[in-house]
Structure formats: C-alpha cells, structure tokens
Amino acid sequence: MLMCFLILEIGSVSAQKWQPAGDKIKTQWTELVDLANPLPEYPRPQMVRDQWQNLNGLWDYVIVPKGNFTPSVFDGKILVPFAVESSLSGVQKRVGDKNELWYHRTFTIPANWKNKSILLHFGAVDWKTDVWINDIKVGTHQGGYTPFSFDISASLLHAKEQKLMVKVYDPTDKGFQPRGKQVVDPQSIWYTPVTGIWQTVWLEPVEHAYVSHLKTIPNIDGGNVSVMAVTEGTLPNDIIEIKVFDKGEIIGKGKAIVGEEVLVAVPKAKLWSPESPFLYDMEVSILRNGVVVDKLKSYFGMRKISTQRDANGVVRLQLNNKDYFQFGPLDQGWWPDGLYTAPTDQALLFDIKKTKDFGFNMIRKHVKVEPARWYYHCDHEGILVWQDMPSGDGSTEWQTYNYFNGKELNRSVQSEQNFYQEWKEIMDFEISNPCVVVWVPFNES
Amino acid sequence: MLMCFLILEIGSVSAQKWQPAGDKIKTQWTELVDLANPLPEYPRPQMVRDQWQNLNGLWDYVIVPKGNFTPSVFDGKILVPFAVESSLSGVQKRVGDKNELWYHRTFTIPANWKNKSILLHFGAVDWKTDVWINDIKVGTHQGGYTPFSFDISASLLHAKEQKLMVKVYDPTDKGFQPRGKQVVDPQSIWYTPVTGIWQTVWLEPVEHAYVSHLKTIPNIDGGNVSVMAVTEGTLPNDIIEIKVFDKGEIIGKGKAIVGEEVLVAVPKAKLWSPESPFLYDMEVSILRNGVVVDKLKSYFGMRKISTQRDANGVVRLQLNNKDYFQFGPLDQGWWPDGLYTAPTDQALLFDIKKTKDFGFNMIRKHVKVEPARWYYHCDHEGILVWQDMPSGDGSTEWQTYNYFNGKELNRSVQSEQNFYQEWKEIMDFEISNPCVVVWVPFNES
Amino acid sequence: MLMCFLILEIGSVSAQKWQPAGDKIKTQWTELVDLANPLPEYPRPQMVRDQWQNLNGLWDYVIVPKGNFTPSVFDGKILVPFAVESSLSGVQKRVGDKNELWYHRTFTIPANWKNKSILLHFGAVDWKTDVWINDIKVGTHQGGYTPFSFDISASLLHAKEQKLMVKVYDPTDKGFQPRGKQVVDPQSIWYTPVTGIWQTVWLEPVEHAYVSHLKTIPNIDGGNVSVMAVTEGTLPNDIIEIKVFDKGEIIGKGKAIVGEEVLVAVPKAKLWSPESPFLYDMEVSILRNGVVVDKLKSYFGMRKISTQRDANGVVRLQLNNKDYFQFGPLDQGWWPDGLYTAPTDQALLFDIKKTKDFGFNMIRKHVKVEPARWYYHCDHEGILVWQDMPSGDGSTEWQTYNYFNGKELNRSVQSEQNFYQEWKEIMDFEISNPCVVVWVPFNES
After folding, report:
1. Chain B nearest CA to C153, separation (Å)
2. Model confidence over A151-192: pLDDT tens digits?
C-alpha cells in the first residue's frame, strides 16, 4: 500500500526516504495521503484570494538541544503538515522541552508575483515558532492553534531559490495532562504530544494594502450583516466595500472608512441552521480613490444564537429565535495516523457527516481548535459547534527565565497574558463561522 | 405663539410639519427658538476657527427595532439638537432599549472648503452613535456627554448634496434611576430619559494637520501657563506655537515640538475669580518649516484651586492661595421644554447670572455634563463649578452580548473600562475651563 | 591645588568664577577633574558611533520656586555633570521640593552634521527633566537613573549658537530615607540628596533611521547570541545586520527584518567570567535596499547565570554551568566630592579594580544605578554585579495634583506605574552587560 506513494513520487529522491512511521496506526485515509501534495485544499475558506502556493510536502527536519544555532545538517525528511510525533509525518519522534525542532526547505516565487508583498502563512504550529527566510529572521509566534503570517518580501532574494527555516519549541510536553485532553479510549498513541507544524503552510501575494482579517456578525432581527475588515498598509482615507451575493446574484452592498464596520442589508434573509445551512457569498474590497487595491471572497450565514427563559423559568438555548435542543458528541479531533491533523480533507469532512448521520446537530470541540477547513465544513454541512478553549496552556512556558529574583511576578503575569492572547486569537479565528455558537473558556470549572 | 415659528419659516415645507410637542412644558425661551437656526452660537468657544457650518435644524427621524438596517422611510421631522423625548424636538417619543433612533438629513459643502479635511462634529449624543455619510460608515462613539468628531473627507461626493445618517442607541432608559438624576420637584416629564443628539452638530474645514484638543493649565505661583495641544496629521518635527494676549496686546509666547507642552510666561497675572473673571486670549498654531498650517483662538484664566489646613487643622479650600468659602446650589441642568438642552443660549446664560445674583459663587453640576458654551459662560461670568461624574452609566450596556458563556468576565471589565473612558473624556473636555475647580467622580459614596 | 584648575582654564571667564565648594570633602581624584572637559570619555560604550560632542563643563544655573517661568538671570556657574549638592559642582546647595533647578548653556552644531538628525543625550538626571532648545520645548523625562534622549533637529537654528535650557525637579529630597540609601559610615555629606544632571550630557548626529537601543542575550549552551535592535525611523522592510568579531576577525553574522531578533552563531565560545572576562565585538547596521543607513559598534560576553540544586537539595548559583560562589561588598557608589558622580573615569575604575584586588568576584550595587561606563568597566575587568532597584522612589511625586477629589486612586496607580516604568528602564539599560547577573527589585523584603 505504501508503495503507492513511492510510485507516485518517482523521481523524488527525498520521497523515497519517507514512509509513514510505526505499523498499526493507520486509518482508511492513510493511504490516500498524496505525498507530493498533502492537504492540497485552499486552507482559509473564509478569505479566498485567487493566487496562492501550497508549501506542504516533504521538508528536512532535525531535533537539536534547545538554544542551538541554526542547523545545517538534518535528521531526515518529514511530511508537512503532520506533527513530528505522528505516523504520517514519517518521523514519529518526541521532541521534549529540552529540545527544539527545526524544519528546512526551499521554494521559488512565481514570476508573476513580482512587486507584490509576499505573505508566508502557517495554519498552526504548536507552540512557539521562529521563522527565517534566506537566514533573515522574519518573525515569531506563540500559540499552538491559530493561524499567523509574516510579510517576507524584504527577505527574498532575486535568485530563484529561497531558503525557509522554521524553529519550533513546545515546552508543554511535560505538562501534558493539565492541557485537559481527556481520553475516551486510551491507547498509547493518544497520549502522544503534538509538536511543530500541524496545518498547511502556504504563500500568498498581496498588494501593499490588504485585508488581514474579517469579523462578520449576522443580525437576523435587523436583516443585516456587520463586517469589520482588519487591514494592513491602508491609508486613513481608504474605503472598505462589501458586496453580498445569493448564489451569484448581488443582493446588497455597503461601505465604510477603513477601520469602521460595514453594515449591509440582507432583507428577508435565508436563515442558516443545521436543517438548512444556507450560506451567502461575500466580496470584500479595499478602494483607494475609487480603485480596487485588494479583493477577496468570503461567506457568512444568517443565524442567531440566544437564550430565553421558558414558562418554568428555565433558560433555553434558541437558534434563530426558536427553542433549539442541541445535542451532540464530545469531539477530540485526534487521528491515529495524523494526531492533530486529519490525513485528508475528506477524512475531516467524513467525521462531520457521520455525526449528522447519527442524528446529532452539535459537536463540542473539546480542548482543541481545528483547522479553518473543519469549521468551513461545519458551516456547509450544517452542524453547531461548541468551542472549548484548550486549557492548561501557558502555565509552564516560563521556566527558562534567566534571573532568579523577581521571577514569580513575571511568571504569573506572562502566563495570564499568554492565556488571554491565545484565547483572543482563537475567538478572532472562529468569530465569523456561523457554526460556532458557544464558547467555553474553562473546561467544567 | 407657535404660529410665530411657522410664519418665520414660510417657504420651508418641512418646517410646516414641525411644532413643539405636548402642551404644558414651555419656558420663557421656548418661543424664542429659531426653527431655521436653533442654537446658532459657535459651539466650541475654547477652540475657535474662522470657518464652520451649523447643521442644527429640522432633520428626518425614525424609531425602528434595534439592529434594523439603515432606514429609507422616516416618521417625521425632529428639531436637532433637542432630544427626541423633549417638547422642543417636536417629537416627544420614547425610544427604549429595544429600539434605535435614526436621523437623516442632507447638506452641502461650501465651494471654498475644497482640498480641506472636513470634520463632522457632534457636541453630544446620548449614548452610542453610528454615523454614515453617503452610505459610507465614518465612525462610532460611546458616551452621552462629550463631544466627538469624524474626518468625513473620504466619504464626500463631488456632487453637491451629501447624505448624513446617524443611528443612536441608548440602553439606559431602563436603568434610569441609578443614573442618579435626582428630582427636586417631580413632574412626569422630569423622569423622561434623554436619547439622541442633544447638542449642536456642525462641520469644520481643517488642514491635514490640525489641533484636535487643548489642555491649558494655569500656574499663578509660577506666573505662567502650560498648553498641551493634541494634534492629528502632524509630523514629528512640526512645532506648536502659543501666543497670549491681554485685550488684544500680545504679552507672551512659547513653542514646543509637537507632542510636548508649551510653557508661556504670564507675568504679574490678572487672576481669575468669581469677583473678577478676567480671561486671557490665546492663539495656537502649528508650524511646519516655519509656515502656519493650522491656527485657532482660545482663552484661559489664571486661577489656582488648592487646599490648606487652617489653625484648627481643618482643611480649607483656597482660591488663588486665599481661603475661599464656596457656596452654591445643586444644578441639574434640566429644561422642561428641552430636557438636557437649553432652548436658547440666552436661557443657558440666564441661569448662571441668576445664580450669581442670588449671591452664590459656585454651582455643583449634578450628574450631568453641560455643553461647552455653559462652561464658557461660567468662565466669563465668574462662577465656580463642581463637576459630578454622571453615575450609574455603563452598567447595563452589555446585555446584548451574543455568547452566554464567559460573559460575566467581559461584562465587568467592559463596564469598568467604559466608566473610565467616559470619565476621562469628561475631564479632558473641561480641564481647560478656569471655572471647573472640583471633580466628583462618585456621588455621595 | 585648586589653583591648578584655574591655571588650566586661563582665558575662560566663567571658569574663574568656579571652584569646588566646601573645604573637607576631597578625594584623590578631585584635583584631576578637568574643568574644561570633565568626564570626557565616551558615555555609552555599548553603542558607539563615530561622531559625538560632549556638553559637560561649566553651565549657568539658578534655583527658583517650583513652577516659575524660564529664568533669564542665573545664580552662577555649575560644573556639569556634578549634582548641585556636590562639592565638585562648585555650588553645593540644596534645591528641595518647593524649588526647581534650571540650567543654561549654549552650544554649536558642527558643520558636517548638516542634514542629520541631532540627538541630545542625558546620561541621567535626578528626577524630572524638562528641556528646551532655543526656547522650544523638546521633551520631558521622569526617572533619576537611566539615560534618555530627544531628537532636537526641529528646534535648531541656522545661526551658529544654540541655546539649551534644562529644568529639573526632584521632590524626593523630603522623603530621603525611604529611598533606602543606607549609610555605612555616616557623615553629614552622605545624607545629601542628589538633584539634577549627574551624568554626561552629549550630542550625537544620526541618520533619520537609527538604532536607539540594543538587547544582547548570550546563549552559551546553544553557541549563539541573540540581538534585538530597537530602532527609530525605520521602514517595515528595513533589515538589521549583526556582525560578531573576535579581536578584529569576523566569526559570525546574522540578519532580521527590523523588529525581530537577530541570532548569530558563536561556536566554541570563549566564555566570560571574572577569571577570564573575554568580550566579543559586534557591529550593528540598518540596511535599506542593501544600503547601510546606520552603523554602530557594541560588544558582549558569552556567559550564563543559572541555579542548580546540589546533592543536599540546596540551590546553588552557577556561572557557565558550574557552581560559582559569589562574594563581594555592598557598594553604594557615593563620592565625597561628586556624590552620585565619580570625579573621573579613573576613579570609577579604581574602585572596581580595588574590589578585585581584595579577592572579591562580585559587587552588590546597592539602591543605585551607575553610569554605563561603570558597567562597561565591570564587563572589562571581570566582576559580577547584583543590581538593586533604587527603592522608595515614586511614592511622593504626586502631591502637586490640583484636584482634591478622586486623587487617592490616581496617586497609587501613578506611583505604581512610575515604579514599574523606572524599573523597566533600568533593566533595559543593563540587560546587555555580561557583568549584571542578578536583579533585586525589593531590598531585603
């Protein structure tokens, strides 16, 4: 079965060295992983631009003691974006809090991306990430569940081949249980920590002014939708324009000065629900002196989640102003072969469809945050999501602080700030998905 | 009596539809309200520029359920800047926390304002305001007592007529008593909530770099005045210049790099007091490479408020380093016909003069903040002001938050932040008035 | 002895009016102070640029009541940078919390500094400083121990002579003991407060983009050094380049996008210790489109301070991963003739060498922060430093607040903010010195 991969990958020396690690942890999708193009789907369905380049695939990796300088020799190949402990990574090694995991690959920038700003996106990397392009440090990020990106334009060479190095540190290996990942059916693999890149890595060309984040809030009572576009590189007088489409037909538009929310009418809205998960399409543009300088596609659902006391005084959850009994499973989002990462997009979708087939209308996403495509599938398939905050993170990160005096104060402040920062990033990340209806910041406490 | 208005307003179709609402709530100034030009006085006496345009007058209004999209049909005419519940508004309706109040009017920009930045100013709007120009959202503000403005340049059309829409939400209707507006002589109208625009709305052309706020602090012991000019659009090397005048004669000047305070000598200062309310005039300029890019006029009074223990150890309030016994009435600032808004500037002045005639030297401005002209009159007439913070606001705003989990934490933090934000805006607003000598953040608690 | 000064200074009218004040407080270096050029050494050894101009020397001074306007008449001459209470200042007067100390001098800008940004640096001024150039306010600073600077370019005249005025306020005279400066051998002079400029004042020409601060952290386990360059005036795509030298020979380099840390390999590092205080040299540049727009020289030491439990469970301090018993004196840094300020750089160095000669390997710098050159000497000579935070500051600064209501809240918040702000500035200031190994935020508490 694994030979299939190798045959597909003929001509790739590195591919010939790679195979899933271990021998008993396959899923029905394991063999469907395309080694040349794992997880090829567009990774950010809520903000779609025409041009992008997927960097998933076989990269070099090496595990070295924490603090070591940029390595030039590597242990072997790893299949990105599967965590280094997973079978699908082809490595299945632990890193630990004394070591760091380094990645290396090269890439080229398409000729027609010239004069653009080039963004390097990471879907998620657990936990602290440092990135160099051509040996120039371009950025750092903390937080294992949310996407981040860097403008790497200044670090690119005129030459064809660009060198990418990524360093990952994840101290939470030690303190794993307090992270709250409970196990329904314990097997040794379920306790495996997850370290490193576990979602799609990709490149995107943008103009020097561009939309970096969208916050889309439907209002079914008011018959409108509010869109806040966060931007980079805009000028104070730039304007954001939103167009709303119902199956290709424009039904409303609105504008705002950059930094202000755009309100667009959605009269007689088709409501979104698990029974009828209708999604409106949306186009977001930045206008400067009337000229479009950035444009992207998005979508939203018109739904409302609220609470109401019933005749007996009991608080009832309502969907679209009607009592709605939500029931569904606790979903861990662990894959025997990929751990945090589903082997294929079909696998991701399969679970959601199966849950609906069982008659559930809700999933409680337990102490994990999924890739954007998972929420996209829930939006499309129609299933409600209760999102837990992954608990326990941020409490053990700071033990490496150098000075032994005055440390206690710093630790608690930083740990708390880190918790709120990660939680905020997670809420920003999912805020526009109609499927997400409940946030659970503290697990059963 | 009301016919007077209509006769004055002949030729105005809209005016013919408007009249004060109710039948028993007039004051001696009610009939002096100029329907074509209500409250025509310059609204910001501490920062005077030559050019401006008053937008007070008859506007369209409509009350619709909260969250509704921008309306295109209106209930009728409202006389801005009188609150919708007031008689002088011509409406006298309640809005409530389930509804929003929308305003609409058109205006034109004078031809000689071309190439300027156009600011749209609101003296005060209770409580949350959203503003659109030509269907482009230009800004939002929370806080019912303080002035705010938006640069609307990017939203203006080359065409003559510009469309202005304002949405107001005021959830504090429900929780009225906790706002602390005590009533001396209860009548049904005194309990009326105040919603919407209640101070002058106006336009002002400025250069792209301009002074947006002044903080003027006299120092009678040191014989000088400190002026901090807050600016927009300035460059790091721009310079602020202050000139001080005594009845037209320049007596001192000073300069600072933008962002730093300017200190100007005021030797042998004529002290400000209720007995002798002398005001110095001031000119504030922004210089760029020696060229004036913004200029405005202001004023200040040289006075000092301090405390001193007397021979018996009792703390005494001092004015200008001498014991000064302050006595005066609690002043609510409610008008039977205009509620928060005095029918005319003469009415505003009349109350202050009357208080002085009664022999008082102080007014405690109770749980309300007045328009800038009221403090200006106090400065000119010579009366001390104790300013209360309007209490109880900010505690009921957040009940519309969508998510029922993790909400408690957000609510208290946001409520507290809102309280400090509003309080800070109020202090910034009045800090430069010599009449304001005492701040009372918490009412009798 | 003092005649020496005067003879050296022939031709200087002002110098003839100056002499050390008092009669019994000399040190062996007192007579070595060069009146024309006191403390002529480069004041910032960790960030060296080629061009600079020392402004130390005889300035005009005057003590006037707090809040007075810029004076034009002066009491006499003061030798900068010696505190006004010191003998070496030539003044030896107290200022007190009711007064302010003003300084005045003129200076000229070298012709070849044209088109540069001109920074005015203060090594340290105790406590609050306001600065005017040519009667234009250029900046303000609070905190008595750390360096600060202002870009004075916009205030300079095309004429030759530039006028500098400095105002200093130090309210902590009253509350002196709580500052924690304990006295080993009490003499009347040891209790003298320190007010005003007490470190070198100097000018520096820089490009419009320049490095304003360096944070250099060695990592001996990883064989590398991390350098974070804080910059002013840089553009998002500018690049920081670091080169590391071992006695003139380049051994490593690294780059980062501005705002990111640069990691440079230091393989087989020569470790820094009191026994072998080896320092690497470093060159820091800002590159814009490949062109160097700023360049400066620095240095660092490869050392590690950590703790380890020994066989008995006792926590041991380690230097470079080996138990290291640190012992040394409590050092107050008080000079009979100069108070906070050593009379000469040789005097500063002498104390450190003497401490090593006595067999100590550590100095606890008690409730004072020294000039940068002191830490530089410790780095070069090889002695460890425990840095105390000067305690007690910030608790009495706010009594001049005008309004007697709502004051308590402001006081405690501001006092706390001030404490953290000063502490942070002190840590930023010393963070890159290999000699500094322990921070003591609270003295014996």
Report:
1. 7
2. 999 999 987 899 999 999 998 645 433 343 433 334 444 457
